[in-house]
Design goal:
347 residues; alpha+beta; seven-stranded antiparallel β-sheet; three-stranded antiparallel β-sheet; 13 strands; 30% helix; globular
Length: 347
């Protein structure tokens, strides 16, 4: 299925990996990591994983929570002095569940912003003075910038380490994620994918973008193998306490009691896909989704990458699929992930 997916002219390459409680089960690269130089995609290439970054950030946040360095339900101003006190109080739990009212990108120019920020606090200047979209807790709106604020709160709570150090020491090191790094534009990073976009029916190199303004919400590159093993670490107590996992995978609720499709960072079940127009009338997709109980997931869209990660908690098995292009729709990473995971599910 993956070989067929990269056969189209608009799909440079795909990398995918499946892991379970025993470790990495399968991983492989298809197509090209770099078309111009004819570099084949491998399972070690570091891919732009987009919003999967949010789950990495949540993992770091929950480690600080377990160390009693922060509380999920305190006002974020307890940890971030520069967050305007004129805003209605927002909490880390609300930020992680997208119920805080913090805006996301205004337009594509912000999505591919090529401006460097020297630290987490300075990146808040992009949005901190903009009004909240709604009273926190009364509605939901997906926000990448909410995670920049979470990163600032983590730094404020820890006091001794910056966000990069926290993630390295609390997530990458304990989970042995050796193929996961911050997507710093200027750094020489071995086996970094070349990113592509499709615009007006043409495959192009993705424009330059600097992810220092959104590390926490979309600024990592990683091998799918690292991400699948990361996900499986959330299926059993060990890396995090069971009480933390239960909290993360419980549906967030609005003030009126309505449940949402998000827990703390993670998408719960397939709520965010079942009712999308393309999948709603796709019996194959609906049957695949119905075949997995107790699944959590997250997608990722970035400037030059499209990602899907699914964790089947009952079977302690996860899959991650990434293609190094965005704006391309023939290779559906969600369906590819479901189909590949179903093959292992039946074994």
């Amino acid at each position: 299925m993956f070989t067929k997916a990269v056969s189209g002219e608009m799909v440079p390459g795909i990398s995918a990996a499946i892991a379970d409680a025993e470790g990495l089960v399968w991983s492989k690269g298809y197509g090209y990591a770099d078309i111009e130089n004819q570099v084949s995609m491998t399972n070690k290439h570091k891919m732009r994983i987009g919003s999967i970054a949010k789950l990495i950030t949540v993992a770091g946040m929950m480690r600080l929570y377990e160390q009693e360095k922060l509380q999920l339900d305190k006002a974020v101003t307890q940890y971030v002095d520069t967050w305007p006190k004129s805003h209605a109080p927002v909490t880390l739990r609300q930020l992680a569940a997208h119920t805080a009212g913090v805006r996301s990108y205004k337009d594509n120019a912000e999505f591919i912003l090529n401006q460097h920020f020297s630290d987490t606090s300075s990146s808040l200047s992009l949005f901190k003075d903009d009004p909240l979209l709604f009273q926190p807790g009364t509605d939901s709106k997906y926000s990448t910038f909410a995670y920049s604020l979470i990163a600032a709160a983590m730094e404020g709570a820890d006091k001794k380490r910056n966000f990069k150090q926290i993630i390295q020491q609390e997530v990458f090191n304990p989970l042995n994620m050796q193929d996961s790094v911050f997507d710093d534009q200027a750094d020489i990073i071995a086996l970094r994918q070349r990113p592509y976009i499709v615009r007006d029916g043409k495959l192009l190199n993705a424009p330059q973008s600097d992810h220092s303004y959104k590390y926490a919400g979309g600024g990592f590159i990683a091998s799918p193998a690292d991400i699948s093993r990361f996900a499986v670490a959330h299926s059993i107590e060990g890396y995090l306490k069971q009480s933390s996992l239960d909290s993360m995978f419980s549906r967030a609720k609005l003030d009126n009691g309505n449940s949402l499709g998000f827990g703390i960072g993670w998408m719960i079940d397939f709520d965010n896909h079942k009712d999308r127009s393309y999948y709603k009338d796709n019996l194959h997709a609906q049957n695949l989704m119905a075949s997995f109980d107790n699944a959590v997931m997250h997608s990722g869209g970035s400037n030059g990458g499209t990602t899907m990660m699914i964790l089947c908690r009952d079977h302690q098995r996860s899959i991650t699929v990434v293609k190094n292009v965005d704006g391309e729709y023939s290779a559906d990473v969600f369906l590819l992930a479901l189909e590949a995971l179903a093959l292992f599910h039946r074994q």
